[in-house]
C-alpha cells in the first residue's frame, strides 16, 4: 500500500532552518514597513478567473493554474484560478473595498503566488512575493519613502546594494524626440547592453530593431551620458526640450533626487537610462535594486503606475510600489553568509535525564524556566545519554542540563555548555542567570 | 471594459485590522510553541493528487480542489490538488525527509487549507490551520506538553477554557467488554447526548444503533460515572478488567493526570468519556478545548496517533498533536472584546503640514524618529488640514504633529493628542520622550 512520497515539480518544502531564515527576512522587511505606516493585508489564493485573465499578456494567461470545481454543481460554479502575482489582486482589493479604505492607502502583502512556468534553477511554480504600495496620491514622497525603505531593509540585512532608477516618461520622451514613439522598449533593450557589447554593437542592434540612421545618430548623446546625476539630467533637458512628457519625467527625477538629498539618504543610487522593466503598467519612476557583492540580478523592483485599478472600474488612481524578491534575498544572504547564527535553534537548553524520577524533576525545572520566557526542552524519555546528547547536538541546542540522582538530592543540574564542553553543577537561580 | 470585482464564494480578503488581529493570535501561539522547542515548517499549497486521495474518506475526496495543468504538456503532467489539511502533508513530509529529521520531531505549521465545502456562516473554502505535533516518541510527556501549551496560549489570550480529554483505548475497551467491538463510534455518539436528552433517550438510541438489552445494561455504570477523575478511573478499571486495551487506556490517563498534577497545571481538565472525535487515525489520548464564556464548540482539538506515516511507507511511528482553530479563536476574542486596543494602528504619529517647506521639515523629523524605531507617517501633500486630520482619525493614529511656519522657526512641532484633543508645542527631544 505504501506510496513513495514526493511533491509537485517546482514546489518546495521548507524545513525549520529554511523557515527560520525566511522568517528573519520577512520580519526584517515587515519591521521597516511598519516604521512608515504600511499595514498588512491578505487576499485569497484563488481569484475568479475573470479577475486574472488578460492581465499578464497572452503568455501569462497560459501560465495560470486553473482550479477544477469538485462536487455536483461543478459545471455551474464560476471558474477560478490561483493568484499569479500580488498586484492584480491588490488592484481588485482596492476597487472592491474602496469605501472602507483611507487614501492615500499604504499596504503591504506577503503571500505565495503560483505560475505554471517550466521549473528550473531559481524558478519555482510556488514562490512568495512581498509587495509594498502606496496608492491614491501622486506625491513623489511615495518614491522617497520606498527608497528609504530599500536603504533600511538592506542596511538591517547587511547587504550592500545599488538602486537603479529611471522614469518611463523620460524613456517615452526619448523615443518621441527621435521620432520613434512606438520603439521605446526596443531602444531600452538595446541600450541595456551598452556595457557588455559597446557602442558599435548597440547601434547595429538599434538599426536591426527598425530605427533609421538619423534616429540612431540622435540617440548618441544619450549613449554618451555620464557624470553626476545633475549632469545627466541637464543634458536630458536639452535633448528632451521638445517633449512635454520627457521634461515632466526629468522634473520628477529632479524632485526625487532633491528629496533624497534633503533627507540624507546614504544608499547608492544611480540614474540608469537603460533601466526599462517589462511591466507595461508603469508610467513614472521605475526602480531596480542589485546586490553589489553577488551576481544574481535584481533583488527588488517596482515603479509608479497611474491606472492600475482602471481595469476594475476605478480609473485615475496613482500609486507607487516595490516588490522584494524573498528567494533571491535568501540566496544572497546564504552566499555571503550573512544569516545571524542564532536563528538555528530557538531552544536554549535541553534536559537530559537518567530515570523517571529525574524526568519529573526536569519537568518542574522546565516549567520554571518557561515561566521566565526561556525556551527549553525535556527529552521525553530517560533514553541512553548518548542519544539525548545527540538530539541536542543535531538541534544545535547550546546547553544541556543533565539530571541524575545526585543532582536531585542537591537541588541542582549538571549544566553542559555544548560549544566549549565545560560542565558545572548549578542551582535553578544560577541557571536562570546564565540563560 | 470595467469588471465588477469580487472574490470566489467561501473565500475572504483580510484588511489591516483583521490581519493585525490574526497576527496577534498567530504570534501568541507561536511564542508558546517556541518555549517548548517546536519549530515551524511549511509545505506547498499543491500536493500530488495521489498524496491526498483516499486520506479523508469518500466525502473528503469529493471536497478536494483539483488543479488543472496549463500549457502544452498538460495531459502528461501528474494531477495535483490543493492541501485539504496539514496532517497528511505533515505525514508525507516526515516520510520524505526522514533522513534529515531529528526524532522526536517537534514541528508546527500555520498555513491555509482548501475545501470545496458548501460555504456557510463560519465555514470557509479557504481557512488557516495551526497544527503542532511531536512525532517519534510514545512518551506521554507529549500529551503533557500539549496540555501545558493549551493552558499557556489561552492564559495569554485571556480566554477561559475547559480541556476535555478521553482515550480511544478506553472507548475501544468499553465496546469490547460489552461485546460490541465494532460499535465504538455508535456508542460514543449516543453517550455524547446524555446531558441534552437524558439516560432514557440515550438508551433508546443505543438500541436503535444495534445494541441489545444486555449491552445497554452493561453500559449503565459508564453513563452514571461521576465524581473526581480518580473516582472515574477507578470505576473504569473494574468495568474494563477484562480488556487489555481498555486497561492500557486507563493507565495512560492515570499517567497523564499524574504528570498534570506533578507539574501544577492549573487548566480546567475534564475526563470526558463522551468525547470521541471523528478522525479515525487516533489511537490514544484525544482532546478538545471549549471556551467557557462563548457558545462556539471546540476551539482546539487533537490526539495521539500510532501510524499516521504508515500510508507513506513508514509504519509504527507514534505521535501526538493538536490544532488551534484560528477562525473560532478570532470569533471568541471578538465576542468577548479581548483583542488588545493597541493592535489598531502601529503608526504612533502623523505629520500634518501647511506647505512644501513644512513637508521637507517633517520628512527630516520623521527620519529622526524612525531611526529611534518609532513608526511615523508624513501626510504626502500639504492638503487641507481637515483632510490630513481625518486621515489620522480613520487610521486611529494617536498623535498628530502639525507643522506651520511658526513651528519651523522655533524648531518645534505642535503636537496634538488625538484622544484628549490637547495641543502643545514640543521639541524633537520632547517628542521622542512622549512617544
Total number of domains of chain A: 2
Spatial arrangement of strands, main beta sheet of chain A: 1-5-6-11-10-9-7-8
The share of residues in helices of chain A is: 40-55%
Q: From the coordinates shown, what is the CATH architecture of the largest domain in chain A?
A: 2-Layer Sandwich
Largest interface: A-B, 97 and 97 residues
Could you tell me the mean pLDDT of chain A? 92
Biggest sheet features of chain A: 8 strands, mixed
Strand content of chain A is 15-25%
Poorly predicted sequence stretches spanning 5 or more consecutive residues of chain A: none
Please tell me about this protein's structure.
- The structure is a homodimer of 435-residue chains.
- With 435 residues, chain A is an alpha+beta fold.
- The first copy, chain A, folds into 2 domains: 16-335, Bira Bifunctional Protein, Domain 2 (BirA Bifunctional Protein, domain 2, 2-Layer Sandwich); 345-434, Rossmann fold (3-Layer(aba) Sandwich), CATH 3.40.50.800.
- The first copy, chain A, is 41% helix and 20% strand.
- In chain A, the strands form 3 sheets. Chain A has an 8-stranded mixed beta sheet. A 5-stranded mixed beta sheet of chain A has the order 13-12-14-15-16, sandwiched between helices.
- The longest helix of chain A is centred in the N-terminal third of the chain and has 20 residues, at 16-35.
- The first copy, chain A, is elongated, with a radius of gyration of 28 Å.
- The mean pLDDT of chain A is 92.
- At the A-B interface, helix 1, strand 1, strand 2, strand 3 and helix 4 of A face helix 1, strand 1, strand 2, strand 3 and helix 4 of B.
- Strand 3 of chain A pairs antiparallel with strand 3 (66-68) of chain B, so a sheet runs across the interface.
Amino acid at each position: 500500500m505504501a506510496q513513495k512520497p514526493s511533491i509537485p515539480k517546482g514546489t518546495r518544502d521548507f524545513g525549520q532552518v529554511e523557515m527560520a531564515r525566511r522568517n528573519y527576512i520577512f520580519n526584517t522587511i515587515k519591521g521597516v514597513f511598519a516604521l512608515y505606516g504600511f499595514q498588512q493585508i491578505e487576499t485569497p489564493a484563488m481569484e475568479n478567473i475573470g479577475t486574472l485573465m488578460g492581465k499578464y499578456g497572452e503568455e501569462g494567461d497560459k501560465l495560470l493554474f486553473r482550479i477544477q470545481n469538485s462536487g455536483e454543481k461543478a459545471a455551474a460554479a464560476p471558474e477560478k484560478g490561483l493568484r499569479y502575482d500580488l498586484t492584480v489582486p491588490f488592484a481588485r482589493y482596492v476597487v472592491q473595498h474602496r469605501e472602507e479604505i483611507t487614501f492615500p492607502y499604504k499596504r503591504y502583502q506577503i503571500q505565495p503566488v503560483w505560475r505554471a512556468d517550466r521549473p528550473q534553477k531559481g524558478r519555482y511554480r510556488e514562490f512568495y512575493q512581498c509587495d509594498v504600495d502606496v496608492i491614491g496620491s501622486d506625491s513623489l514622497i511615495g518614491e522617497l519613502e520606498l527608497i528609504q525603505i530599500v536603504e533600511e531593509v538592506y542596511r538591517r540585512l547587511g547587504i550592500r546594494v545599488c538602486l537603479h532608477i529611471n522614469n518611463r516618461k523620460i524613456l517615452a520622451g526619448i523615443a518621441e524626440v527621435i521620432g520613434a514613439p512606438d520603439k521605446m522598449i526596443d531602444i531600452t533593450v538595446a541600450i541595456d547592453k551598452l556595457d557588455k557589447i559597446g557602442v558599435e554593437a548597440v547601434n547595429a542592434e538599434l538599426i536591426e530593431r527598425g530605427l533609421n540612421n538619423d534616429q540612431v545618430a540622435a540617440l548618441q548623446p544619450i549613449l554618451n551620458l555620464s557624470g553626476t546625476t545633475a549632469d545627466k539630467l541637464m543634458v536630458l533637458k536639452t535633448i528632451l526640450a521638445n517633449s512635454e512628457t520627457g521634461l515632466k519625467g526629468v522634473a520628477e527625477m529632479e524632485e526625487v533626487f532633491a528629496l533624497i538629498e534633503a533627507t540624507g539618504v546614504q544608499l547608492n543610487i544611480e540614474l540608469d537610462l537603460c533601466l526599462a522593466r517589462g511591466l507595461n503598467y508603469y508610467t513614472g519612476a521605475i526602480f531596480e535594486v542589485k546586490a553589489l557583492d553577488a551576481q544574481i540580478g535584481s533583488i527588488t523592483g517596482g515603479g509608479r503606475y497611474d491606472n492600475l485599478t482602471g481595469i476594475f472600474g476605478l480609473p485615475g488612481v496613482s500609486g507607487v510600489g516595490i516588490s522584494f524578491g524573498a528567494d533571491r534575498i535568501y540566496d544572497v544572504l546564504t552566499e555571503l553568509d550573512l544569516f545571524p547564527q542564532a536563528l538555528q535553534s530557538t531552544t536554549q537548553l535541553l534536559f537530559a535525564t537518567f530515570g523517571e524520577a529525574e524526568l519529573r524533576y526536569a519537568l518542574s525545572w522546565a516549567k520554571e524556566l518557561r515561566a521566565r520566557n526561556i525556551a527549553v526542552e525535556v527529552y521525553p524519555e530517560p533514553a541512553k545519554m548518548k542519544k539525548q546528547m545527540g538530539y541536542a547536538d543535531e538541534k544545535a541546542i547550546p546547553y544541556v542540563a543533565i539530571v541524575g540522582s545526585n543532582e536531585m538530592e542537591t537541588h541542582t543540574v549538571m549544566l553542559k555548555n555544548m560549544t566549549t564542553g565545560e560542565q558545572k553543577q548549578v542551582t535553578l537561580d544560577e541557571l536562570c542567570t546564565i540563560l
